[in-house]
Design goal:
Helix content is 59%, strand content 12%. The N and C termini lie far apart (29 Å). The radius of gyration is 14 Å and the shape is globular. The chain is of the alpha+beta class and 64 residues long. Strands 1-2-3 form a three-stranded antiparallel β-sheet.
Length: 64
């Protein structure tokens, strides 16, 4: 049972079901909200996606 609990916690800390992976990352929902707000100042399109991804990377998250 302790092994299952440890694996469950490790999965929560390192993977998010939206296609993101992070190790030692900030909590996903907080990082996502902050990065959405930050990227909103960038013109829509590829530049906004790049700004969002860079922000998320700064918070420890990377797309899988």
């Amino acid at each position: 049972m302790p092994i299952a609990a440890a694996l469950s916690l490790a999965a929560c800390a390192s993977l998010h079901d939206a296609g993101w992976q992070g190790s030692g990352a900030e909590p996903f929902d907080g990082a996502k909200g902050a990065c959405e707000s930050e990227a909103a100042a960038t013109p829509a399109g590829d530049a906004r996606v790049a700004a969002f991804d860079a922000c998320m990377a700064g918070k420890g998250w990377h797309r899988r």
